[in-house]
Every structure is written in C-alpha cells, then in structure tokens.
Amino acid sequence: MTNPYRFIHRLRxxxxxxxxxxxxxxxxxxxxxxxxxxxxxxxxxxxYPDGWAAQGTDLFMVAASQRYADAARYDDLLDVxxxxxxxxxxxxxxxxxxxREAAVLFEGQATYVVADRTSRRxxxxxxxxxxxxxxxxxxxxxxxxxxxxxxGAGTAESRQYSx
Length: 163
Fold this sequence. Notes:
Blueprint lengths: L6 E6 L14 H17 L6 H4 L3 E12 L8 E11 L3 E10 L2 E14 L10 H10 L5 E2 L20
Parallel strand pairs: 3-6
Antiparallel strand pairs: 1-3, 2-5, 3-4, 4-5
C-alpha cells in the first residue's frame, strides 16, 4: 500500500510541552498538528494566513477527533504526517498522525470550513486551491458528490463561524 502521507513535518519535543509525568501534555499534540498544517500550506504555495487573507478568506475548525496510542516525551523527534483526506464544497478534512520513528503516537482528523474573512460565512473552495491540493497529495482526497445546495436553514451557506 502507498503511504498516503506525502507531507511530513519534523519537530522536537521541548521541555515546556511536557507535564509532571515527563510526557507531552495532551493539548500540545493538536498544537503540533496546527504547526504542521501551517507548513503544509507553505509547501503547496499558500502561506497562512497571508495567502488566505489576500483572497478574503480564512479557515475555521469545526470538528476534530483524535486518538492517543502512546506518549511522546521530552526531546523526542516526532514526525507529524498530514494530508487532505476530504474535499467538500466549502470544507476540507485533514487526516494526521504523529509518529516517533515507526510508532504512531497520535492520530486523528480535523475539519475546517473556508469562510469569508469579514462575514465568516462559508465560501466555496477556490479552483486554485483545489488544483494545488490535488497536484500535491500522494492519494487523491475523497470528494463530495456534486449536488445542488439551497440557501435554507441548516445549510453551510446559512452558518457563520466564530474564531
């Protein structure tokens, strides 16, 4: 099977990220993923936040799930593997793993909505972004089937996201 993760960001655990047990405190794993996501955007040529701001858009996380398999410790060298796993009309879902050598310590998914920077209303993912993601990824992300959407209550177009 092909490794689905083309993008890997390496980092070293710092002392301040560890708790009294000498292991990485739980919230830091998602911070590691956030750093990797910023570098992912840089790698595909859309530096965050400036590249998004220039388009009048931003990203808002709306859901995340994660599973802890083992603990990282001070001075561990970690690989944060990240990929776009799903492309919707206005949303993207990223899949991620944090590894120490071959061992997966942490894994999960995070869903973001692309939204207007001012109104915070969802906006369609632009074709330039889609092309960059599709050209970069080792495994083609799942795609939402093309279906018409309305502007009624409960649709993504009616929601507003706060940061």
